[in-house]
Amino acid sequence: MADLNTGIFSMLNNFAGQSLAVDWVIVFFADYLAYILFLSQFRF
Asked: Which residues contact 27 (CB under 8 A, 6 or more apart)?
């Protein structure tokens, strides 16, 4: 799970380029998505 998350993050990070604002949004979104997936494991 951690390796998959890191791979997705690095892929999005490379796609975003060098913009710090975009990087911050990607980090926030990736953490939010991981949090939702984490909660869904307990819900089902």
From this structure: 9
pTM for the structure as a whole: 0.41
**pLDDT tens by residue, 13-43:** 666 565 666 778 888 899 999 999 888 888 6
Structural Rg of the chain based on CA atoms: 12
Q: What is d(CA 29, CA 21) in angstroms, rounded to the nearest whole number? A: 12
Counting Cβ atoms within 10 Å, is residue 3 exposed (0-12), middle (13-18) or buried (19+)? exposed
Q: Domain boundaries in the chain?
A: 2-43
